[in-house]
Amino acid sequence: MFIRLFILFALIPIIELYLLIKVGGMIGALNTVVIILFTATAGAYLAKSQGFAVLKKINDAVSEGRPPAAELMDGLFVLIGGFMLLTPGFLTDFLGLSMLIPPVRTIYKKIAAKIFKHKINTGEWNFRLFG
């Protein structure tokens, strides 16, 4: 757990700073800031439009009487992608934008499903239903 938190809060910002300095040195500080602002604006628009599309799919699934599992996974990745776009930097912008593109998001969903199945099958995660 410590390693994961270290990667999240120390290693990723270090990589982002490195990339910002390298790119800023190549194309200039102002151009770097413009690119960051452009990706944040484009990402906010995509997150909003994809978020509404996912909400519609969830409503459709519920009205059809089926559990909206895939739609909820879409919503999770749209939310994570939106948060990543709020973080300034090239790595997080790239990952965030990729999570907002439906065909690429399908790849993320398949990877997440494999991880979830593995954790459930090994007993690392347990679920209890009350009702």
Uncertain runs: none
- Biggest sheet overview: none
Whole-number average pLDDT? Answer: 89
Number of strands: 0
Any idea how many domains? 1
Number of helices: 5
Q: Which percent band covers the strand fraction?
A: under 5%
**What share of the residues lie within helices?**
over 70%
Summing up helix and strand content along with how strands pair, one would put the structural category as mainly alpha
Shape: flat
Rg for CA atoms = 18 Å
Order of helices and strands: HHHHH
Distance between the termini: 33 Å
Please give a structural write-up.
- With about 130 residues, the chain is an all-alpha fold.
- The protein has one domain.
- Helices cover about 85% and strands about 0% of the residues.
- It contains 5 helices and no strands.
- It has helices spanning about 1-25, 30-65, 70-85, 90-100, 100-120.
- The longest helix is centred in the middle third of the chain and has 36 residues, at about 30-65.
- It is flat, with a radius of gyration of 18 Å.
- The mean pLDDT is about 90.
